[in-house]
Specification:
Layout (H helix, E strand, L loop, with lengths): L4 E4 L12 E4 L8 E9 L3 E8 L6 E8 L2 E11 L4 E10 L2 E2 L3 E3 L9 E8 L3 E5 L5 E5 L6 E9 L1 E8 L1
Length: about 160
């Protein structure tokens, strides 16, 4: 039974297992990827491990119902026109971004490995960063499961796991 679809910038095929996604990838880098039809539900934790590219601007982890309805947009920004070394979180629906939330803990460095754990509760996403700091972002859409995850930008994703 196929439980999910992975789309990324090469032609490899990956197996998904009922209730658990565990992806470890090292033969080439995955820099842009969308996972569709894979349920991430309340009480589960998404763990992402990767390496920041050299001269990064930003990278993104999105969790939502579709690419147009993003419940949690996690966006570390290294240096853009408005933000330097800050994490910007938000949600997107109806063609509009909502109120941004800023997190000052920034354990990301070019060329260094990172680990992000996102625990999904009914009311919020609880994020734990590589340096042990945590913060919460509200589940503004109120859903108990989301089926689309996106990974984009200046990070090479090494592994993704949902437990």
């Amino acid at each position: 039974m196929l439980l999910g679809l992975l789309f990324f910038n090469n032609s490899d095929i990956l197996d998904l297992f009922d209730g658990l996604l565990s992806l470890k990838y090292s033969s080439q880098s995955i820099c842009d990827m969308i996972i569709k039809n894979m349920t991430f539900k309340v009480e589960q934790t998404l763990t992402v491990v990767g390496v920041i590219k050299s001269d990064p601007k930003r990278f993104v982890v999105d969790i939502g119902e579709s690419e147009d309805r993003i419940a949690f947009h996690f966006n570390p920004r290294f240096d853009d026109s408005r933000h330097i070394n800050i994490i910007v979180c938000n949600s997107f629906e109806g063609g509009n971004w909502h109120q941004e939330q800023y997190e000052k803990s920034f354990p990301f460095s070019p060329g260094k490995e990172f680990k992000i754990s996102i625990q999904f509760t009914c009311s919020e996403f609880v994020v734990t960063l590589s340096n042990g700091s945590t913060f919460c972002f509200p589940n503004r859409m109120g859903a108990e499961k989301y089926s689309v995850m996106g990974f984009h930008g200046d990070a090479v994703i090494r592994s993704i796991e949902i437990k």
